[in-house]
Amino acid sequence: MVKPGDRAPCRFLRHGSGSLSGLVFAAGAVALWSTNALVGKSLLANHPVSQVQFLQFAGAALVLAVIRLMSREKSAPVAGAALASLAVGFIGLVGTMVLQYIAFASMPVIEANLVAYTWPLMVAAAVIVFENPRRPALLGLAAALGFVGVALVISGGRESAWFQGDLVGYFAAFGSALCMAFYSVMVRRLATSPERLLLPSSLVGVALTLLWSAREGVAWPTGVDLALGLYLGAGPMGLGYHLWSRALKLEGSGKVAVIAYLTPIASTLLLTLSGERLTTTAIAGAVLVIGSCIAVGLERSEAQDHV
Prior knowledge:
The protein has 13 helices and no strands. It has helices at residues 7-33, 36-44, 49-70, 79-106, 109-116, 119-130, 136-155, 167-186, 194-216, 223-251, 255-260, 263-273, 280-306. It is globular, with a radius of gyration of 20 Å. It is found in: Cell membrane. It holds the Pfam family EamA. It is a multi-pass membrane protein.
């Protein structure tokens, strides 16, 4: 006979298992995302954004199609849910990646990368506005300091003027962050599996970037560049988004957030090792951005544990 008290350990084990799986998926996504800016920088040195994006979406579509074929989910979502999933997937995948790579091509990659990874701060702002966090003042302060850091990164401590890159690049980087913040908030609210959510959007991305590439009419990459482009799609885009989506669905946005917010640290380190440099002022801004992201993640993780 099972006593009422005996059920608690079972619930704990199930919760612990889901939480551990979520953390593992999030760590996998971070490992892949950390290479995105470095590999993207090398390809954009010789190829236009349209071609790099086409290879990315093609690689992502292939990986997501394989995952979808291996999935046990058979039932199709109802029309309304399908449209909502398509919208969330399109904004989160196509919007984030296209805008991010326009930013990479229009301004220093290391700065674009830091601005694009302010999406955790935008998620924190959404939590303050739409939810009931335990310590809204602390979340607000962390987010505000993060955006001060963004201003320092953009200024770069240069003697001339702000916005050394194309102004479009800065707007694109912020737009990319907004799209990713929207996706991270919404994906947990959808019952749709990650592969069913992301595959249609990746196919739309393939079609749009193919037309974009054909319009520019330049030579296609081959050899190593072709492999790197497909890696960007199969790895950071396809598997990265899939793992991140599964992590959010399993564990929520508490402890997972702390791991995900480490992405700008790893990606900035890789870019620095490749020769990218920040001025002293921009380094101070980067510290504020990264520190604020981690503080937001820790606060939300603590709030989730309290609940």
